[in-house]
Amino acid sequence: MNPAFPEQRTVLLTGAASPRGIGRATAHHLAAAGWHVGIIDLDAEQAAATAAEVAEQHGVQAAGAGADVADREAVRAAVDQLEQQLPQLVAVVAYAGVSSPVPYLEVDAAEWHRVQSINLTGTHWVVQRAAESFVASGVGRIVGVSSVSAQRGGGTYSKTPYSAAKAGVVGLIRSIARELGPYGVTANAVSPGPVDTDIMGGTLTEERKAAMAADGVLPRIGTPRDVAAAVAYLISEDAGFVTGQTLNVDGGLYMH
Q1: How many whole angstroms separate alpha carbon 243 and alpha carbon 177?
Q2: Is 162 a known active-site residue?
């Protein structure tokens, strides 16, 4: 039998300091449900400020640390720091990512490397470090963040390098699920469709929202809360028998 899900539990979120991002919304959503929160963001000051805001509003413990997720040693140091400040680490959600609207024939080496290193390699480094703690304790929840762009082959704001990286996240998570399952650790991905955040190229107009929604079967695009709620399920104790899956949160944009 696996160890019991601890009552005092911490979720680690990367890329959760952006003011209008899904990660920040998730931090608040999970804190409201009683999770303690660790935030890793490129901007250390913003990570700390977001953590302070979460702690104050929800009465939980929260802390922030700065790191470029593409830098293995920086990520490991950040997780070490947060683990010392917070209760037992039980879940990690790798939100940190960048968009890439560059047309395929114009993608140069720098753009390709930038997108892969943050969206895919960055997911790997933080998940690997968190997984060390999960395996040691015998309980853990891992969530990678893919995109409907990976499943449909683009067709959103971002193009090929982004789609390739986000498809890589799905393969990464499935393999991690297989390897770490025997240790009581689950690994799943969420795959958002269009969500009204700044990664879509700035605040969306009502016309642009309507055009994006037209591809799906629901009459709206997603909100950060939609994705946060899906993540809340995947990292919950109730999701202990769900692993290796990709949960689409896209209004029916991609059905499979």
Answers
A1: 6
A2: yes
For the whole model, what pTM was predicted? 0.94
63-95: per-residue pLDDT in tens? 999 999 999 999 999 999 999 999 999 999 999
List the structure tokens of 146.
Answer: 């893919």
The residue annotated as part of the active site, out of 95, 104, 157, 162, is 162
Q: Beta strand 140-145 with 185-192: parallel, antiparallel or unpaired?
A: parallel
Q: Six-digit token pair at 126?
A: 């933080």
Amino acid identity of residue 30, one-letter, is L
First CA to last CA distance, the chain:
33
Cα–Cα dist 164/170, whole Å: 10
Domains, in order of start, for the chain: 10-249 (3.40.50.720)
Chain segment 106-147, per-residue pLDDT in tens: 999 999 999 999 999 999 999 999 999 999 999 999 999 999
